[in-house]
Amino acid sequence: MTGRGGVVAAATGAEALSTELPVGRSTGWWGMVMFVATEATLFACLLGSYFYLRFQYGPQWPPGGIGAPELLKPLVMTAVLLPSSLPMVWAERGSRHGQLWRLRCGLAATMVLGVTFLALQAIEYAEKLRHFTMTTDVYGSLFYLITGFHGLHVLVGLTMIGWLLATSLGGGSFGAHRHERVRNGAIYWHFVDAVWAAILFTIYLSPRL
C-alpha cells in the first residue's frame, strides 16, 4: 500500500502536474477568441449597414443639413487609443516573465489612455448633441449606435484592465505560468483598438471621400 501510495503521490505532486499541462491553446484563450470573433461580426454588420444606408439614401451624406464630421477630435482620440496597445503588450510580456512592476506600469498606462479616450468621446457627444440626436435621422442613429457601442466595449476593456491592475497591486499571482488572464485582456483590448480604426474610416473619413 505504501508503494502504491507513493506512486500516486508522485503522479499528482506539484512537479508532476506542472509537467503535465495541456499542450496548445487554453480553454480561456479559445473562449476569448470566440467572443472577439462574435463581437467583430456585430461590428461588421453595423458598419456594413452604415454603408448600405448611406448609398441608398442619396448623394447628400450626412443628410438633413448635418455637416461632415470634424476630424480634429477623432484624430486626437485615435492618437490616444491606438498607441494604448503598446503598453498592453509590454504589460503582457512582463507578466509572462514574472515582472510585476512592468505589468502594473503597462496596465496603468493603458487605463489612463483608455479613460482619456472616453473623456474625449463624451466631449464630442456633448458638442454633437447640440446639432443632432439619435432620433434626428438615419445618420444620427448610425453615428450614436456605432460609436456608442464601441465606447461600451472600451468601458468593458477598462473594467478588465482595472481588475487586473487591482489584483496585481493586491499581490495576485501573475508569474510566468499564470499570465493567461493578462493575455486574454490584451486580446480584447487589441480588438477594441482595431475596431476603432475601422470606425474612424467609416464614420469620419468616408463622408469626405
Can you lay out the helices and strands and say which pair or pack?
Layout: H1 2-12, H2 14-19, H3 27-57, H4 72-81, H5 85-96, H6 100-128, H7 138-169, H8 180-205
Q: Could you characterize the architecture of this molecule?
A:
The structure is a single chain. This protein has 209 residues and is an all-alpha fold. The protein has one domain (26-208): Four Helix Bundle (Hemerythrin (Met), subunit A) (Up-down Bundle). It is 75% helix and 0% strand.
Which residues sit in consecutive blocks of at least 5 with pLDDT less than 50? 6-22
Distance between the termini: 80 Å
Number of strands: 0
Helical percent range? over 70%
Strand content range: under 5%
Radius of gyration: 23 Å
What is the correct CATH architecture? Answer: Up-down Bundle
Average per-residue pLDDT, rounded, comes to 87
Give the domain tally.
1
CATH superfamily: Cytochrome c oxidase, subunit III, four-helix bundle
State the order of secondary-structure elements, H for helix, E for strand: HHHHHHHH
Question: Gist?
Answer:
The chain is mainly α. The protein is 75% helix and 0% strand.
Task: Provide key terms for this protein.
209 residues, mainly alpha, Four Helix Bundle (Hemerythrin (Met), subunit A)
